[in-house]
TrEMBL record:
UniProt KW Repressor keyword: no
Name of the molecule in the record: DNA invertase Pin-like site-specific DNA recombinase
Classification via Pfam families: Resolvase (PF00239)
UniProt GO BP: DNA integration
Protein species of origin: Nitrospirillum amazonense
Residues of the active site: S15 (o-(5'-phospho-dna)-serine intermediate)
Residue ranges annotated for the Resolvase/invertase-type recombinase catalytic domain, each copy included: 7-146
Source taxonomy: Bacteria, Pseudomonadati, Pseudomonadota, Alphaproteobacteria, Rhodospirillales
UniProt KW DNA-binding keyword: yes
Protein family per UniProt: Belongs to the site-specific recombinase resolvase family.
Stored InterPro entries: Recombinase_CS, Resolv_N, Resolvase-like_N_sf, SSR_resolvase
Keywords: DNA integration, DNA invertase, DNA recombination, DNA-binding
PROSITE patterns according to UniProt: RECOMBINASES_1 (PS00397), RECOMBINASES_3 (PS51736)
Gene Ontology terms, MF aspect: DNA binding; DNA strand exchange activity
Amino acid sequence: MPDVPPRLVGYARVSTDEQNADLQVEALKRAGVPDELIFVEVESGRTAKRPKLMLALKACRAGGTLLVWKLDRLGRNTSELIKTVDRLHERGVNFRSVTQSEINTENMRTATGALIFNIFSALAQFESDQIAERTRAGQAIAKAQGKKFGRKPFSALYSTEKIAEFQAARAAGMTVVDACKKTGIPRSTYIKYQDVFKSGAVDDIGADDEDQTTR
């Protein structure tokens, strides 16, 4: 019986629907991760409950590797990053950052490698804290000036015509990635609202769903 190659699982994350995960996804593909084992999340790195991350971790097998584009895609909380990677190691699963060659399981077994991982983890949280501070300051100023802030709801960003254009591209034989590029729709948005893109029923998105795009 031929040897089965170690399983590679990829995890990509963007914080909002308006951001694009294609760069991360393409890097994971080039690293050898198959399409069906790339999990794309639209969520803040500070959020503990991330369904796609849970699926990615569940898909990992002993001897295999979980890959991310950068360490901060896995998360921006130092303690959670350390816990997640430790749990992977306990299961015999390796971890690697595609763009940060020094962050990998082999290096993390050394004192220097562990230190580098902790430094990058702390930097990820530091950057996240800075972003949060700037956001709060900007919101306070906007509120004082009577301005409204927050992202537009899905129905305001993507019309039924835009959805129809996407459907036509898919019907013509285009892949999801190519259809997204043609229509300018982020792949992460397609993943989050697959049912809408398949049915074309933009109005089916309830107020609760649209509110989620403003948090």
